[in-house]
């Protein structure tokens, strides 16, 4: 378990949550794993299916402590709420800002700053770690371009202009993606992003990674009481988790792209893991998906130090930390949304 921003994260799948007085008790096969006072908790997030006692659910509902259940893969299952039916004030603030493009741009700007900053440092890391295997001058030039774009993005308060600047940054970064593939070059190459369908092995991997990340972020947003379908940068579209796509922008490169590159460069995935259909679409085999998901779950257990909070957490909790910080910003507990800046 991990306590973060007055939220208790229970990450073991086989832990039962119960109530003892004003305390939450964590049980595994009747063995007590932990006990914490509930009075200083704002929410509890449980990964898995074992469940919680009705007494604990009633206690949390009565005292407005959010009790959230997720699958082990991060997909949202349910939230226990009392008479307020969830955090109405928080969602109303989200909807008001989403309806105002100027206010939306101020939040969207931070998502894009996070994305471009992290892309820049992925490039810088490559020049440090593989100077003999890449064109360092080309990478440094792109890093310089991204730095210039960051200056423009920080001053931008127009959504359309922001999208244009983000597009320029993505184009510069994507031009180097093929150079970051260091192994299996004949079978794995990247020239441009292709979606629905993916037209090569790399795009098939990226699409799967982005889908998983979007689900993780959507579950985290729902867990704090936000509406994952109402975004600020990505506008409303039926069936699209627009806010999840917003928040995952800053995580896309450092979480998904680097993961895909590691699968290729460490030869976890190879050319035999893909099937090509008659229409040119490339899809992953069932065995490849199993390997991918196993590695994805392992990645989520790796520990990092959160750059804003300064606490050690596992990668799998990063979307939840960002969702909590976004909720605090929307409630005016923070002056600005602190994006995840990796270096």
Automatic annotation (TrEMBL):
Pfam families: Cas_Cas1 (PF01867). It comes from the Bacteria. This is CRISPR-associated endonuclease Cas1. CRISPR (clustered regularly interspaced short palindromic repeat), is an adaptive immune system that provides protection against mobile genetic elements (viruses, transposable elements and conjugative plasmids). CRISPR clusters contain spacers, sequences complementary to antecedent mobile elements, and target invading nucleic acids. CRISPR clusters are transcribed and processed into CRISPR RNA (crRNA). Acts as a dsDNA endonuclease. Involved in the integration of spacer DNA into the CRISPR cassette. Belongs to the CRISPR-associated endonuclease Cas1 family. Gene3D superfamilies: CRISPR-associated endonuclease Cas1, C-terminal domain (1.20.120.920), CRISPR-associated endonuclease Cas1, N-terminal domain (3.100.10.20). Its EC number is 3.1.-.-. InterPro entries: Cas1 (IPR050646), CRISPR-assoc_Cas1 (IPR002729), CRISPR-assoc_Cas1_C (IPR042206), CRISPR-assoc_Cas1_DVULG (IPR019856), CRISPR-assoc_Cas1_N (IPR042211). The keyword Metal-binding applies. Keywords: Antiviral defense, DNA-binding, Endonuclease, Hydrolase, Magnesium, Manganese, Metal-binding, Nuclease. Mn(2+) binds at residues 166, 234, 249. CDD domains: Cas1_I-C. The keyword Transferase does not apply. Homodimer, forms a heterotetramer with a Cas2 homodimer. Transmembrane segments: none annotated. Its cofactor is Mg(2+); Mn(2+).
